Amino acid sequence: MTSPRTRPWPVDLEGLGYGGDYNPEQWPVQTQLEDVELMQQAGVNIVSVGIFSWAMLEPREGEYDFDWLDAVLDRLHAAGIRVALATATASPPPWLTRYHPEILPELADGTVLGQGGRQAYSVSSPVFRDYALRMTRTMAERYADHPALALWHVDNELGCHVPHDFSQDAAVAFRRWLEARYGTVEALNAAWGTAFWSQRYDTFDEVLPPRTAPTYANPTQQLDFARYSSDELLTHYRALRDVLREVTPQVPTTTNLMASTGTKWMDYFSWADDLDVVANDHYTRAHDPAAHIELAFSADLTRGIAGGDPWILMEHSTSAVNWQPRNRTKAPGEMLRHSLSHVARGADSVMFFQWRQSAAGAEKFHSAMLPHAGTDTDVWRNTLTLGQALKALAPVRGSRVQADVAILFDYPAWWGTELDSHPSQDVTYVDQVTAWYRQLWHRGVTADIVSPREDLSSYRLVIVPTLYLVTDDGAARVAAAAAAGATVLVTYFSGIVDEHDRVRLGGYPGAFRELLGVRTEEFYALQAGERLTLDDGATADLWSEKTHLVGAEAMSTYTDGLLAGWPAVTRHAVGTGHAWYVGTRLDEVGASRLADTLLLESGVQPVVDAVPEGVEVVRRRGGEVGGGADASFLFVLNHTPEEAVVTARGVDLLTGTAADGEVRVAPHGVAVVQES
Among 602, 627, 660, which residue terminates a domain? Predict the structure, then answer.
């Protein structure tokens, strides 16, 4: 139920966007001419251009060749295809790293990362920043008035390969960031607890990035370096964006995020206000049989970053990728289903890496909309089918997803949870985040993935998984939601430390003790393979705690082990709501039973009644056309080999078939019902 902000959208992009990264510099002109014809055939209406073209546009310092790009943009405009034009700064050309090797990034052990791949730059390097700003301004001034220009694509996947740089330029920038954060070195010493291990600093000049050390680096130093690194990448984005806004204030800007359970080091919630349009790249994992659930989570996370506004799926794959250990070809119907799952969860544009599959280079085996084998292929036929589907779904544009459940997700908590020297290295952040998300997904319950900095007052159920690090304000927002009538679930290893990684004294779970009505005196981390039995028949592993009841009631207790008779799951009445605490990792039986209880207590309902197992159901409401604010669109995605039947009334936009009480969805198929 996030209140959406109003963000701009690519200029003159009609309907839902469809396209991908387009790299014409890899191909002769005759192939480029064919590309435009095939794009029109497929229904493509937007492409990203120029992302990795710096060396082609500026082959030697100060010498530019824009003729080929001029011709490409002219052809795309003539064909009615909008352009997300890149700043071309994503990978510096060889001449730049040759003349200025000092721009190269360094690892924590001092290893310099060389030129020859991509992103071979230190984001803190003043030299690189100057060159990138100059290139960005040159692009902006040349194409400011080009009629194809719809969106600026700033750099590319910032931090993908170098989330942390430990170079000397980074050390200087880190000190500057610390001084802005703390003001005095005395405040830094207090926050970092430098009385431990004789780490007291006398000046900021003594501070270094957490480079490879004899043993554990200061945990707050590590945490602040993660914050600095995310902020430094954002600062780079802002600098390029500000040039674009100065030259082309009428054209919105974005950069492609990588919001998923696999991208840890950029705090995208802190980036959100700087993005005119939120764009995300997402790739499923070949080894994961439930990859479609992780996809749904990542789409919901992206929507949360966007504040509920529609967003762009900037990259995903038509079939196999090239960079996983064993890359898997997508099965029949999977490309369409994956694409429309993103749309169901808020994407108003579906794009791929890339348009035409490369014949050379590191990504030549990464699938594309137009594969190596050409148009007589399943991949190309899937490209055509998806284009037709997105055209039919034009009425969905501008509609919003609404949810009664919030799952709190916080990047600093992720970083803090997985610092070294903790009670158990097996406690990871996304484990419980995704475990509770899966419980909701299987029940057809939609969740917003939101930051603890968000207002939670509109949600009926708030899930707080492994929020190890939380500010006073974040904890207060959770407590206020419960007091106002929400059901709140907090899992183990939450509320332990403040924003400086200082333990909240007096017993665990620290910031949530009063809310939960419990006090844990000690953690009992479990060994690999060790399991405990609960009195309700469930089992648990990984973690347990010696928890005292201070107002709460025990809903289940341990029946064996050192904590036999002690609470495992508790419930506490708070205001007009309730706060639950799960002090262990429940098995599927226990988690499933508790999920049903939480939904019943909070009054949260699934999108439709009786959602079949393996079927994804999401609703979007409103829209710019096709019914306006009263429109309602039910997405039904069948991830099973059996036909699925779901309650619905209206018309399936994909087939034109009426749904009079129910919609039947073919095995591995999709339906999108505009509800009557």
Answer: 602
